[in-house]
Amino acid sequence: MPFRLLIPLGLVCVLLPLHHGAPGPEGTAPDPAHYRERVKAMFYHAYDSYLENAFPYDELRPLTCDGHDTWGSFSLTLIDALDTLLILGNTSEFQRVVEVLQDNVDFDIDVNASVFETNIRVVGGLLSAHLLSKKAGVEVEAGWPCSGPLLRMAEEAARKLLPAFQTPTGMPYGTVNLLHGVNPGETPVTCTAGIGTFIVEFATLSSLTGDPVFEDVARVALMRLWESRSDIGLVGNHIDVLTGKWVAQDAGIGAGVDSYFEYLVKGAILLQDKKLMAMFLEYNKAIRNYTHFDDWYLWVQMYKGTVSMPVFQSLEAYWPGLQSLIGDIDNAMRTFLNYYTVWKQFGGLPEFYNIPQGYTVEKREGYPLRPELIESAMYLYRATGDPTLLELGRDAVESIEKISKVECGFATIKDLRDHKLDNRMESFFLAETVKYLYLLFHPNNFIHNNGSTFDSVMTPHGECILGAGGYIFNTEAHPIDPAALHCCRRLKEEQWEVEDLIKEFYSLRQSRSRAQRKTVSSGPWEPPAGPGTLSSPENQPREKQPARQRAPLLSCPSQPFTSKLALLGQVFLDSS
């Protein structure tokens, strides 16, 4: 018998959202300007409370008005909030924080850090801020965006993570010591998302610095997961990175798996990589075949497809936004509306929600001010303009302010049933939740640029087009300008092409020389010896690399304006 969901009647008569006093008559769309200012006030209440009570610790404890380190002692909230400052228009504070981070953040510390969290929050936050620095009025150094202090900090942090990838499978450990590498007793069991959530940051880093090691390890990890999928096309939740054996075999789209799927899509868009998109589309078929029921997504056994947990997790609420990126708007909206009913039932999304029972799951009743449903609303509003999506934004603002706001910031909601609070304000509240709310209500923000305006930057490699739009958000909502990747990649790839031509020329000369030695007694021809010449071992012709699915190189040479077309942050030449 096919599995069917029984939705309780109580869900039909959901509680009214908390928006008393909101402007406009009942049933009309919320006023974006009003809520935009409300969101900005929320940000500064939380941000100022962090600076006054918690800096330089990672995060604010809003009930006791102090701070604590959570993910590695990086002043994490400051890094996570940096690009949000610019999106809200505060260039002076952005500039000040850039100086503070350069003076205070040190990655040479004896701390065990999450590889996943350090990547998405620290590396992602620094890369985004680096690429936005010029727009924020920071005086950038010569060679930017291919060099700069924030880029060097991001590279330093990422190099601290590389030892985690030194496993037989190429899939990384979940934790690394920033000073000593992977601890000898470290568990080899890592969640799927902790393995497959690097390609956005690491490919960006490789493109900007010219060092391919970052993108290479991220791609290997992605491919090992792909090769580890079950016969029915699903992946589990946790895997042993030493043996490649699945430890937790629950398959779904939520916690422990979520950003793996997200990064296949976003990596494909960022890098114009057809193979990554093809991988996601294959997963999407299996997900729809085995986990999709009545516009909900359940958890199933990865080898059999049988339902293991008929629950909705709040982290799954990113999925409608991801569907919108591949153009599946109708399915995205139907699923979004299911999730929105849960929000209206509780004034937030509980971590786990039992779908057949229509209620929270024991010990999973909390809401730590997560952004995922708001994130999906922002994407879908950009795609459809449906005012229902603004209503979710209004409800989020009203609920968070009514339930979560305290004297020193905004507190995690420990239990949505009685609104008890917990003494923590996660850094993602400022990095993601507030940012997505603000962008939902700010249709003209520079992040939403459709390519009609852009900045032209002269670099040592030629003219570079930036700020044309098409920003790719990492899973911590740090926007990456895809055009920047081509600004720095061009010189390296052109240099490799020239080197290969020269080496081919020398190889031909050597072949002719050997042929001549059969008839003429003379010494072999050799290129001039000396430092950096092609006779040195490091300059021998590179082995041919396996073909990789990627779009043709998009470069930005100097040319008349009429020969350019800015599209999604990339510059296509007339000849392309």
Automatic annotation (TrEMBL):
Binding site for Ca(2+): T475
Annotated localization: Endoplasmic reticulum
Enzyme class: hydrolase
Top-level taxon: Eukaryota
Cofactor annotation: Ca(2+)
Chief place where the protein resides: endoplasmic reticulum
Residue numbers annotated as active site: E117, D258, E351, E372
EC number(s) from the headed UniProt entry: 3.2.1.-
Disordered as annotated region, ranges: 516-559
Gene Ontology molecular-function annotations: calcium ion binding; mannosyl-oligosaccharide 1,2-alpha-mannosidase activity
One GO CC annotation: endoplasmic reticulum
Signal peptide: 1-21
GO biological process: carbohydrate metabolic process; endoplasmic reticulum mannose trimming; ERAD pathway; positive regulation of retrograde protein transport, ER to cytosol; response to unfolded protein
Sorted UniProt keywords: Calcium, Endoplasmic reticulum, Glycoprotein, Glycosidase, Hydrolase, Metal-binding, Signal, Unfolded protein response
Calcium in keyword set: yes
UniProt family annotation: Belongs to the glycosyl hydrolase 47 family.
Function: Involved in the endoplasmic reticulum-associated degradation (ERAD) pathway that targets misfolded glycoproteins for degradation in an N-glycan-dependent manner. May initiate ERAD by promoting the first mannose trimming step of ERAD substrates, from Man9GlcNAc2 to Man8GlcNAc2. Seems to recognize and bind to exposed hydrophobic regions in target proteins.
Protein name: alpha-1,2-Mannosidase
Gene behind the chain: Edem2
